[in-house]
Amino acid sequence: MHAYGIRCEKPGDLDHAIKKMIDVDRPVLFDCVVDPAENCFPMIPSGRAHNEMLLSGAAEDIEQAITEEGKVLV
Amino acid sequence: MTREMTGAEMVIQALADQGVKHLFGYPGGAVLPIYDAIFAQDQVQHVLVRHEQGAVHAAEGYARSTGKVGCVLVTSGPGATNAVTGLTDALMDSIPLVCLTGQVPTHMIGNDAFQEADTVGITRPCTKHNYLVKSVDDLPRVLHEAFHIASSGRPGPVVIDIPKDVQFATGTYFKPKENQHTGYKPKVKGDMDKVRQAVEMMASAKKPIFYTGGGVINSGKAASDLLRELVQLTGFPITSTLMGLGAYPASDKQWLGMLGMHGTLEANMAMHDCDVMVCVGARFDDRITGRLDAFAPGSRKIHIDIDPSSINKNVNVELPIVGDCAHVLEDMVRLWRTQAKQVDKTALGDWWQQIDKWRGRKSLAYRQSNEVIKPQYAIQRLYELTKDRDTFITTEVGQHQMWAAQFYGFSEPNRWMTSGGLGTMGYGLPAAFDGGAVPTADQGLHPQQRLHGYGAPVAGAAARRALFGELFGSVAGFCQAG
User: Fold this and answer.
1) Would you state the torsion angle of the CA atoms of residues B146, B51, B88, B244, taken in this order, to the nearest 10 degrees?
2) CA distance B50 to B293
3) Would you say the ipTM is above 0.85?
């Protein structure tokens, strides 16, 4: 594919790396190394109603928030 | 105009007559005559993939980014079975595809022949419709019908299984006609009485919300324009499913963000507390509703959907309107204007105040770091640095997909390609081949503009989790297809 590779590990380098990606005149594989501990919030825990959302401060509550019925859901 | 030609030539001629410029495929013994026909002409360009699943996803990207039917060509047996994941993906997300599969010659069918599979049997539950063409005389009709079925009503994938002897046989080809399929005429115009009731219900609302989905995108650009007009006329808040992002601009003040499992707090709370819900081209998926018995308990619901089987499937609604989004929205806008509908401004003001309180919780907030790139930050920067360009985004499935949906502010339809219903990993890269490379010519831009343009597959790599963690906001420029 004659691709161009970019690896970016630091937040301070990100803008420059994205601009480079845009400027390169061929396919780019951009390996953006991000925080492995980050979780996706907010969320409706399995089995809960849509007004029972967990926000990012409540990460440790996920296990408790999922109901017994919720555990069988995908 | 009719003409004598082989079945294989009919296939390519029909594609050309249907306006197809690109065909995604992988060759094999049972489709060799069709490949020979491809090389004998230059109207339809073949894009070679490395796996049939990728061919279907590339065609999905093509369909999603252009609004046209995506086309796939695979061989019999394993070619067809490898396409099944892509076909199921397209069925779940209502993507119009025509997938041509080779088949062993008619006299060998049922004989456990080499590379034989019961393709129509296997694909029956994962296509909108499928055909096994046993005579070349049926082929032109079936080819044109397939395009009609794939693209009208609720779009979906159609498989045409063509035995190799039918590809070699000679017959009479005819061009597509009007009313190609007399038995399949989906209702596009909504019942006017119901549209009138819907407008009344909306005008009487104190806590209204628009809940829109992929049906608005599928209905075409006009549907998005009409949706914007209606939302602005009414002053109502609007949220959208994953599949509907881009129909309404994320930069607008009436936009609440995506709803559902990883939607914003304000979108989900407003859905829960609303008194009138206007669902346009969405299907009350389990990712949206959460626990069903607590879903929007005090609401009256209007559900606009072209597929009658989506009505009252998960959630009972007070006012279903079967029809195409653009047609129904057009009628709604006209009625709202001509009847000079006014909402209860005080109530709507109070509703917006409540929404602003939820917005104030900043549900998408994350802790920034100077040491490590936060995935949300990566998407935010990608958005900021590409928002002034015509950017197409494709994703894989999982957390990075949700972050992309949350943090990339789509402003136009057909710019966002993601596997929603089936949640198929392996979708993002092939879809990007097309989400960027091919539409160029079709959308009237100089190919170089888009070819070297700004498509960005945002890929999460669960397999590499041990090494780097869940997400790689990996961003690539377009790969030239073929």
Assistant:
1) -90
2) 46
3) yes
